[in-house]
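Exercise 7b. Backbone tokens:
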């Protein structure tokens, strides 16, 4: 087990290294890409461009530039923005992490709980009117783009019905720190949580239903029936447990991607200054250090999530231990 963990950690470091090299080469070594020109501004003289290249180390070999960039990101943390002079990139990313984590964790709790309920109930009532209704609602949730649903939510909660008893508790758009105002933190995130979770509830509920139905045809289920176990016990203790493997696979990928910045649209719609919004702003201004930092952060979460999924497999399905 320890060897497997160490091997997985080694693979994670190798993947992170590969991602950092690729991202660095895309933004700093692509033909025609000149970071010095972006820093110096339009109509800069050749002398100014040369001075900027020397100041930021762009006149040095690529491997030296890469090493300096990684040192500034992971060791000293003094990498500064090319667009907002004096703005430290790493502290800016770290300040945005709690916002994205708060958004994604809350939404994840909602979509995991409700998708498991929907998947189990739909599988237990297969081909009934309830099963068809739940799957139709799930399809409806999948079909609604998150940015459109977010705008509709804002229209109802922030504008049209904000003064009614139903939505008068909804605070203005933005984010409040949990340490400063726990109640305000919760209230500002309830609507974003629901908006982000609706899409995944539909996807996960349908996936879990299909996995449970497939598991109910396995030999170990027939063995459990032969032992006289009830259908409820078979469904919850045996079929559901192994069916969660596909569920966990999706969750690991989606959660890592969302924490890494894929919740961008939700953050933009609800005025949350998280990692996704920070990355969006950096891409708009082509702020290369900020893009490097946010991409490295995003890749780290995706890689870690995949590693955690591999270890959860062993807990969910004992057959994986002998595989």
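Sequence design result:
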């Amino acid at each position: 087990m320890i060897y497997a963990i160490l091997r997985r950690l080694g693979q994670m470091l190798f993947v992170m290294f590969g991602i950092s090299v690729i991202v660095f080469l895309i933004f700093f070594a692509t033909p025609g890409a000149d970071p010095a020109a972006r820093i110096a501004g339009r109509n800069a003289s050749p002398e100014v461009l040369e001075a900027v290249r020397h100041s930021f180390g762009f006149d040095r070999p690529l491997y030296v530039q890469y090493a300096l960039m990684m040192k500034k990101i992971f060791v000293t943390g003094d990498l500064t923005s090319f667009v907002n002079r004096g703005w430290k990139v790493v502290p800016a990313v770290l300040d945005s992490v709690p916002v994205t984590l708060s958004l994604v964790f809350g939404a994840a709790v909602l979509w995991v709980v409700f998708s498991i309920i929907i998947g189990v109930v739909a599988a237990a009532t297969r081909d009934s009117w309830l099963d068809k209704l739940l799957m139709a609602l799930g399809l409806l949730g999948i079909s609604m783009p998150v940015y459109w649903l977010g705008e509709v939510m804002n229209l109802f909660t922030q504008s049209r019905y904000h003064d009614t008893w139903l939505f008068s508790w909804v605070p203005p758009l933005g984010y409040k720190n949990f340490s400063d105002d726990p109640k305000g933190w919760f209230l500002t995130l309830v609507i974003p949580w629901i908006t982000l979770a609706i899409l995944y509830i539909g996807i996960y509920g349908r996936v879990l239903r299909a996995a449970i139905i497939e598991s109910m045809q396995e030999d170990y289920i027939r063995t459990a029936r032969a032992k006289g176990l009830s259908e409820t016990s078979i469904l919850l203790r045996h079929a559901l447990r192994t069916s969660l493997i596909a569920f966990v696979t999706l969750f690991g990928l989606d959660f890592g991607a969302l924490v890494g910045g894929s919740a961008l649209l939700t953050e933009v719609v609800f005025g949350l200054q998280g990692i996704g919004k920070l990355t969006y702003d950096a891409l708009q201004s082509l702020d290369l250090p900020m893009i490097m930092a946010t991409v490295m952060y995003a890749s780290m979460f995706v890689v870690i999530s995949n590693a955690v999924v591999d270890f959860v497999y062993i807990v969910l399905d004992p057959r994986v231990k002998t595989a």
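Instructor comment: The longest helix spans residues 89-124. DSSP finds 13 helices and no strands in the chain.
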